[in-house]
Amino acid sequence: MAIEYRGFRIATDAKADATDTQWVCSAKIEGYAGEAQDVTLPPVELTIPKLKIDVLMALSAVEHRGKDIVDEWRAAHPALS
After folding, report:
1. Where do runs of H (alpha helix) occur along 1-81?
2. 3-43: per-residue pLDDT in tens?
3. 23 is in which domain, residue-wise?
């Protein structure tokens, strides 16, 4: 699943670990428009126990963390915003 947020594309993925007890979630964050076009931000990686959260909520958590990283980048580069 992927969303576009403030000039970045946040592509999320979740899969079960080898023991099928945890969600291994990740997000790639890449710029696609304007001043962020050639920017790649650090990926988000989370491991969440399956007993505590379902896969959609796990993906949502990774997506929100990705948005926070984009907002932090924008705050650090105000001339580009």
Report:
1. 55-76
2. 999 999 999 999 999 999 999 999 999 999 888 888 999 99
3. 2-80
Measured over the CA atoms of residue 14, residue 51, residue 66 and residue 3, the dihedral's sign is positive
What letter represents residue 3's amino acid?
Answer: I
Q: How many whole angstroms separate alpha carbon 77 and alpha carbon 63?
A: 21
Does position 81 have pLDDT exceeding 70, yes or no?
no
- pTM of the shown model: 0.88
Instruction: Give dist(CA 33, CA 70) in Å, integer.
Output: 13
Half-sphere exposure of 71 (CA within 13 A, CB side): 6
Residue 31 phi, psi dihedral angles, 5° rounding: -75, 145
> Which structure tokens are listed for 14?
């979740």
Ramachandran category for residue 47: left, alpha or beta (phi over 0 → left; psi -120 to 50 → alpha)? beta
Q: Provide the number of structural domains found in the chain.
A: 1
